[in-house]
Design goal:
Elements: H1 5-21, E1 45-48, E2 51-55, E3 70-74, E4 77-80, H2 86-106, E5 113-116, E6 122-128, H3 139-144, E7 168-174, H4 176-179, E8 186-187, E9 192-193, E10 196-198, E11 204-206, E12 214-220, H5 227-230, H6 238-243, H7 260-280, E13 289-290, H8 294-302, E14 364-370, E15 400-404, E16 420-424, E17 432-433, E18 437-439
Parallel strand pairs: 14-17
Antiparallel strand pairs: 1-4, 2-3, 4-18, 5-6, 7-12, 8-9, 10-11, 13-18, 14-15, 15-16
């Protein structure tokens, strides 16, 4: 059969493509990805490009001569454009409440657990069935969930309410810091581990296997609403204690009364929520959500303007219209001159050049780092971080965590981009909240310019 020129080209192309797809020619071809991967923009987050800057106060700031600085570089990451709101944190609280309720109901009603996969293979341990509807008014269901509610003697006017003290988030994480130590590495010659590891109780125990690096935590998740009273002596703040977290009018206000440990638990839950969804869709998972390092926080707050005193890029707390640029305490005893009294709805002031709101004022924010006055002198200049998981028997000084940004109750000097402060990791305050970050390694965002 005589081949036409077009048919000859098609046949030749077929053999060339077929030859390229084979791996049996003794050449190094690598493992092919299943399609192209693209990192999508996370909802409510802004991309912070990689860069370098001088960590600490600029020369124009008061006392800068006595405060150390350090030139550092940070990798790209995503950051929440606002602080985590009451509404967003309530999603976490509601998830914990429903997961506990479903586990209680599953003891009598098997439909609240998934014990087999779609092929009939057993799932051990069984998974919570989130598709089964909970009838919260059903008397039989209420009996099964009785332990989730306040006991009768603690009810106010007999009202049956969830006992928020029992809302506990249980999670596991891998302690890579301990696993990375050379003395804790697997000994291939002896076929075992030789080192020791600190467990959840702060006890130094021999490493048995990989499970020794898996840490188990249980964290009470409900905010401490009484901070509005406890933080202020001789001050009437009972309405905020009663309604700030629960009233719809405050849903878009930053959540407060959150400890550093609760903020970390929220980040873990948010990561699991995202990656469980992606795995169910057979998609590539993403980096975990976490609290920002101190260096990441200051870099993001500056918005690319490395020598500016405030996130909005100048040395003054007002703009050219004489309006205050953040929610803070502008004058002695005058909290309302900036239009706020206490915390305000997130995003009430202009964003910085990284499109982030409230990096100064409103509420101060937890970071991941432990606090040390001399940290700048010894932290690394590449992605610096002073991460430390405090043990139960550590002295209080070891449980200090860096807090950044200042709050609605702070004066102007405390809301500068370089100002450092700390609070103890188990403390909750009416003026401290948080926002999350997520590491990024997608080069498609690297050329995006913000300034």
């Amino acid at each position: 059969m005589k081949l036409t020129p077009l048919l000859s080209i098609i046949i030749l192309t077929f053999f060339v493509v077929s030859g390229c797809s084979k791996s049996g020619n003794g050449e190094l071809i690598g493992v092919k990805n299943k399609g192209n991967w693209k990192e999508n923009t996370p909802l409510g987050m802004e991309f912070i490009p990689k860069g370098s800057y001088t960590l600490g106060p600029s020369d124009q700031e008061p006392n800068s001569a006595y405060t150390p600085t350090k030139t550092v570089s940070v990798e790209a990451f995503w950051m929440d454009d606002t602080e985590i709101t009451n509404s967003e944190y309530r999603q976490f609280v509601n998830w914990v409440k429903e997961s506990m309720a479903r586990k209680m109901l599953s003891e009598q009603y098997s439909e609240f657990l998934i014990a087999e996969d779609k092929n009939g293979n057993p799932i051990d341990p069984p998974k919570i069935n989130w598709d089964e509807k909970i009838e919260w008014d059903d008397p039989d269901y209420l009996t099964a969930m009785e332990d989730l509610y306040l006991p009768e003697n603690e009810r106010f006017y007999g009202k049956k309410e969830i006992d928020t003290r029992k809302l506990v988030y249980e999670f596991w994480w891998i302690d890579l810091q301990q696993a990375a130590k050379k003395r804790n590495r697997y000994n291939f010659e002896k076929q075992k581990y030789d080192g020791n590891v600190y467990n959840n109780d702060g006890e130094l125990v021999p490493i048995v296997d990989r499970s020794s690096f898996i840490m188990h935590e249980q964290v009470h998740v409900y905010p401490d609403t009484l901070v509005w009273i406890a933080d202020f002596t001789y001050s009437y703040n009972e309405p905020l204690a009663n309604y700030y977290f629960s009233h719809p009018g405050f849903y878009d206000y930053p959540v407060v009364g959150i400890t550093w440990e609760q903020a970390k638990a929220f980040c873990h839950w948010r990561s699991k929520l995202q990656n469980d969804f992606l795995e169910n869709k057979q998609k590539t998972t993403v980096n975990d959500y976490r609290l920002p390092t101190e260096a990441e926080w200051e870099y993001a707050a500056r918005g690319g303007k490395n020598n500016a005193m405030y996130p909005w890029g100048n040395y003054y707390s007002r703009n050219n219209r004489y309006d205050y640029m953040a929610n803070f305490k502008p004058l002695r005893g005058n909290y309302v001159d900036d239009e706020g009294m206490t915390a305000m709805e997130v995003g009430s002031f202009e964003q910085n050049d990284f499109c982030l709101y409230d990096m100064s004022g409103n509420v101060a924010e937890w970071t991941n780092d432990a606090f040390d006055e001399a940290a700048y002198e010894y932290i690394h200049d590449l992605n610096p971080s002073l991460g430390y998981n405090a043990r139960p028997d550590d002295p209080p000084v070891m449980k200090r965590k860096v807090v950044r940004g200042g709050s609605w109750k702070d004066i102007a000097s405390n809301i500068r981009a370089s100002t450092r402060n700390f609070e103890y990791q188990d403390s909750a305050k009416s003026y401290i909240g948080f926002r999350c970050v997520r590491s990024s390694f997608n080069p498609s965002f690297s050329n995006k310019k913000y300034w």
